[in-house]
Amino acid sequence: MTLSPSRGSFVIVMTILVALLLTVLPLPTWAQMFRPQWYTLVLIYWTLALPERVGVGVGWLVGIILDVLTGTLLGQHALSLALIAFITYQMHQRVRLFPLWQQSLTVLALLLIERLVSMWVMGAVSQPPPTLLYWAPPLVGMFLWPWVYIILRDLRRKFQVS
Amino acid sequence: MIVRVIAAIVISLALMVIDHRQHHLETVRSLLSVIVSPLHFIADLPLSASNWLSETFATRSRLLQENQDLHRENILLQAQQQKLAALEAENMRLRDLLESSFKVGDRVLISELIAVDLDPFKQQVLINKGSSSGVYSGQPVLDANAVMGQVIHVNRFTSTVLLITDASHALPVQVNRNGLRTVAMGTGKIGELDLPHLPNNADIQVGDLLVTSGLGGRFPPGYPVAEITSVHSEPGQHFANVTARPTAHLDRTREALLVWTLTPFEEYQPQPFAPDEEEVVTDSEAGTPGAEESESAAGSQAVTEPGETQ
Q1: Domains contained in chain A, number
Q2: What is the distance between the alpha carbons of residues B294 and B187, in angstroms, rounded to a whole number?
Q3: Angle A160-B1-B7 from CA coordinates, rounded to 5°
Q4: pLDDT by residue for chain B (310 residues), tens digit each?
Q5: A121 part of a folded domain
Q6: Is residue A13 part of a domain?
Q7: Residue of A7, A8, B19, B92 with fewest CB within 10 Å of its CB?
Q8: Taking Cα atoms as reference points, which of A96, A92, A108 lies closest to residue A143?
Q9: Is some CB atom of chain B closer than 8 A to the CB atom of A125?
């Protein structure tokens, strides 16, 4: 291997930035409730693909940036994303071998955990419980997972991120 | 990994507690937002670009039409403004007779909303003026119709505004018809405010206009806030169920007005401003004959009766 160990960091950072951008991109009001958790999907992919490079630390950092970006309590997304990265890391060797539809179900579970943690935080600072639509983004994310997976895998192969 | 995730969880929890209880993290937040603000501007780009294109390639006749319309509207508004100046002066004289203190004018700066979607479960918007324009945390924000909210985070070139309908926002108001004071709480829904502290026999009706009372010291008194939409009183309950609809177009407006209140206690202090002087709009206090004297008079009497602006 002649590749430097930090090869492709640029690609990882760019995909995370695009995910963050998609998170704040203005949408019509009815569509806002269905906006998938792009940042979580991208984080799950990179943790599955390169667990030795992307993990809890990156998840936490992305979370902090997201908190500043969307104006939530500092640490809210950091907490949930660090947790998600940890769980993904723990089972990455199994999930990697799953067929895509089974991966989607796993991703659904992870996305639901992310929402749940956020809801706990919102409840702790005494915001009213959100509507049932609060649980819509994980479902959208589940259906998007195969495409996210394939696109990011192709990107990873094209730029030989390792 | 276990150690790292436990550290991450502990740090996150600590950050959340500090951010929620105290406000020591404002500097951290504004530092980080310098890094993320390019993302905000890129997200805003499609809309601002399409606005720019439609302005640039507008037809001449449409521009002329628009110009005429604006001119007409301007004349109308100026006519109303003349009346307002006279009324204001009269009001100040009457208040002087009553020996009550009252602030005269406010300084206003127009800012534009940046088109980004923030957290969908908090009612907040991003505006394109920050500490470089003298914006401060807690500053009241209006739109053309009524009170919109207040600034909660200030960065160098942007700031975040918490809308009055956010579930964590409460605003001291008073009924314009009879001066009844109460508190309007946000509900988390964009078109609804809740007035939970009104007794069943309170004199309040559907259609009443709520204005800011100036209590609490954040918002200048007398600005419209909302209109009562429903009043239900159940005999078994202590308080009536009163809801109101904000008069401001919270979900439609593109411009927001930042207000600097001039209380009678402080002299007019010019803030360090960005050189965009044409955007600084002073209220009518300079043009109002007698307003200056009455303001200083009110200031001297404020010691005896400080109730209005405290």
Answers
A1: 1
A2: 40
A3: 120
A4: 788 889 999 999 999 888 888 777 888 888 888 888 888 888 888 888 888 888 888 788 888 999 999 999 999 998 888 888 888 888 878 877 776 655 556 678 888 888 788 887 788 889 988 888 889 888 999 888 788 999 988 888 889 999 999 888 899 999 988 889 999 998 888 888 999 888 888 888 899 999 998 888 888 888 889 999 999 888 888 888 999 999 888 877 888 888 887 654 444 444 444 444 444 444 444 333 433 344 443 333 333 333 333 3
A5: yes
A6: no
A7: A7
A8: A108
A9: yes
Cβ of residue A60 closer than 8 Å to a chain B Cβ: yes
Range(s) of the domain holding residue A91: 34-158
Contacts of A126 in chain B (CB under 8 A): 168
List Cβ neighbours of B130 (8 Å cut-off, separation of 6 or more): B154, B155, B156, B157, B158, B159
**Whole-prediction pTM value?**
0.76
Helix (H) or strand (E) segment spanning residue B256: strand B255-261
A5 found inside a domain: no
In a mutagenesis test of the A interface, which of B2, B5, B33, B114 is the best target, namely the one with the most A β-carbons within 10 Å? B5
Burial B87-118 (b: 16+ CB within 10 A, else e): ebbeebeebbeeebbbbbbbbebbbbbbbbbb
Contact list in B for residue A33 (CB cut-off 8 A) is 120
Residue A4 lies in a domain: no
Whole-angstrom CA distances from B237 to A128, B240, B244 are 22, 7, 19
